[in-house]
Structure formats: structure tokens, C-alpha cells
Task: structure prediction
Amino acid sequence: MEILIISGLSGAGKSRAASFLEDAGFYIVDNMPAAMILKFAEFCAVSNGRYDRVALVYDVRTADSFAELFDVLDKLKSSDGVCRMLFLEASPETVIKRYKETRRKHPLRESVDSLEEAVHRERELMQPVKERADFVIDTSRLSTAQLRSELLRLFDSKGEKGGMLVHVTSFGFKYGLPMEADLVFDVRFMPNPYYIETLREKTGLDQDVYDYVFSFQQTKDYIEKLEDLLAFSLPLYAEEGKTSLVIAVGCTGGHHRSVAVTHALTEQIRQKGYQVTENHRDMSRSV
Result:
């Protein structure tokens, strides 16, 4: 079992970090008091794998005593599972700017005379927690995509690739473009198996149709160039923070050429280490 405690300054991005970690497979619990963490860990340990990766958000709002948190950390780190703590911070100027933009109230605002004082007071209070953290990320100059990328690098074994799901779908142009497509590739220039009587009623998933489509040098060259394009662009999409990318491959009816190429592309993308699904939108329609 893996437990990650997310702590840090108000306005430094804890909630956003939690949402990214949730996408990476963590079960998220917000505002959990230190006194409840051990009991929750015991519950997770007997959950038959349902809660194997848990991220608990802990901040100044639940901090009655840091000594209690540190005691919990020591006990969890001496157990069989993995326990780590992430601390998020940002410069006082950045935190103040973020609070002014969102018009949210700082949790310490009512106990001090100004927002600036609240920000500095929280920084002092949370310093002991920061010193116990396994990872410290300063989000002052990080974009949302950069924060996501750093979290996936640290806490997802698949890295940025694991945070993006690639969907490859074939379709027929005569039935319209898939509305959700991010990238569209037109393979209608390839020789059409429809005009081969023995292949007409089959699909690009049938070996003889697949072999026919890929028997032409132009198909092989096209796939090679597509592979180069995707090898270049997929890491950039992942780095930018895209969680879902839809690649659509179209031919006239969506039965033969687009299906064969989609099947080949899916395997190429899988071999590059990405999570990928394969779908054939119009393959079941009558020829």
C-alpha cells in the first residue's frame, strides 16, 4: 500500500495536485486530521487492493498539533507500506496574487490584520512540516501543465505517458468526422479493397484485407511517416497536460483501409509505452 500525504501552503496548489494524482490512480481524501490517518490506513490495508494508492490532503486547517502528524508519519514509515509526504509552496507574492484573483478567504485571515500577514504567518507555521517532507515543489513559476508533469514524474511509474490515454478510431468519411477527434488522418488515397470481390465483405481486421492494404509501398511509407509524427508529438501532448488524445483515421466507408491502419497505429502507440484504446466506429455498418 502506498500513502502520500499532500501538505503545503494555502494557495500553493494542493487541490490541483490532488486532482492530477487522482487521474494517476490515487484515491484522494481531503482535510483529513492526523488523528484519523492511522485508522484510515488500517482500513485501506484490508480493502483487497481497492485503496492501494491513497493521497491525503493535510494543511493548516486540520493542524491541531504537528507532533501528532509527525508521530503518524513515523509509524507509517516503519510499516510494510510506502509513506511519503509532498509539500507544495509558493512565494508570498504568488499566493497573495492567487487569493486576489479567486477572491477566496485565506484560512488564517480572520486571526490577523491582513492577507499578507496571514500568508507569512502560515509560512512560519508550516515550516516544520516542510522540513519533514520527502518532496518539496515550488509552484510559483509552474504552469498547470508543468505541475502535472512534475507530479507524474514523481508519483506515476509510467511518467507523463501514464497520464495520457490515447484513443485511436477508424471511421468512414461518408458518415461524417468524429466530433471528438484531435488529429484526423485521411487514408482514402490507398488502394481500396472494396473493389476486390473476395475482400469486399471483410474488414481491415481480417488478415487478408490487412495484408492487401499493407502490400503497397505507399501504405508502408505513410505508416512510417505517421510513426515519426507521433513519436514527436505524443510526448509534447503529454507534457502539455493533455489527459485524452483522440486520433481518427478515415477512409470512404470505414471498413477496410482505415481499420487496418488504425489497428497498426494502435500497436505502434502501445509499444511506445502509452495507454491506448482501439475503436472502429463504422466497421459494423453495411458495406
Observations:
- Residues 217-240 form the longest helix (24 residues).
- Strands lie at 2-8, 27-29, 53-57, 82-89, 135-138, 165-172, 183-186, 244-251, 275-280.
- The first strand starts at residue 2 and ends at 8.
- The chain has ten helices and nine strands.
